[in-house]
Structure formats: C-alpha cells, structure tokens
Amino acid sequence: MRVPAETIARMKGAQNPEEEGIQMAVETIQQVREIPGVSGIHLMTVSWEAVVPEVLKRAGLMPEQRGVSEIHSAAKSGNAS
Predict the structure, then answer these.
(1) Cα separation of 65 and 33, whole Å?
(2) For the chain, which residues make up each domain, given as ranges?
(3) Which of 4, 30, 57, 68 could be joined to 62 by an S-S link, Cβ 3.0–4.6 Å?
(4) How many CB atoms lie within 10 A of CB 55?
(5) pTM of the complete model
(6) What is the DSSP string of 1-70?
(7) What CA–CA distance (Å, rounded) separates 1 from 51?
(8) Spatial distance between the Cα atoms of 23 and 17, rounded to a whole number of angstroms
(9) Burial environment of residue 49 by CB neighbours within 10 A (0 to 12, 13 to 18, 19 or more)
C-alpha cells in the first residue's frame, strides 16, 4: 500500500491526528462522490467503528430521519430503502 507523502506529512503535523483522519476521510468521500458513476462508498475503519456516524454526518450522508442502528437492522433484514 502506498501512502502519499502529503498524507503522511498532514498526519504528522496534525495537533489532533484522530480529528485529522476524520477530516481526511470526509474530504475523500466528497471527492469520490464527484466521480461519475460512483454510487457508494465503503469505509474500512480498522477497529474504529464508532467513528462511522460522525464521518457520514460530516460527509452529508447520514439520514436525518433514521439512526444508524435502524439502517443496519433494515439492511440485514432486506428492508432497507
């Protein structure tokens, strides 16, 4: 896996690396959403699942009417909309 030097420098220079990582994820999601034909994202949290709702919220992808647990339950049962 190749990590760009700019990414490494940004993380090393961050006062709060966790916050910087969240911000970088949000920026990446926003960039990927601009690519024609892309209709989704897959987050690999590497044992940091608790951050997913915040990343989705900041990226503008969190449904306001439904909670994450409700969406997850609906997806597991095949009733996601």
Answers:
(1) 22
(2) 5-77
(3) 57
(4) 22
(5) 0.71
(6) ----HHHHHHHHT-SSHHHHHHHHHHHHHHHHHTSTT--------SS-GGGHHHHHHHTT-S-SSS-HHH
(7) 23
(8) 10
(9) exposed
Tokens representing 53 are: 């709702």
Beta-carbon contacts of 55 under 8 Å, excluding residues fewer than 6 positions away, are 22, 25, 26, 29, 43
Judging by beta carbons within 10 Å of its beta carbon (0-12, 13-18, 19+), is residue 76 exposed, middle or buried? Answer: exposed
Cα-Cα-Cα-Cα torsion 64, 59, 43, 7, nearest 10 degrees, comes to: -160
Could you identify the residue written with the tokens 């439904």?
A: 66
Residue 58 makes CB contacts below 8 A (sequence gap 6+) with 22, 23, 26
Tokens representing residue 30 in the block:
């926003």
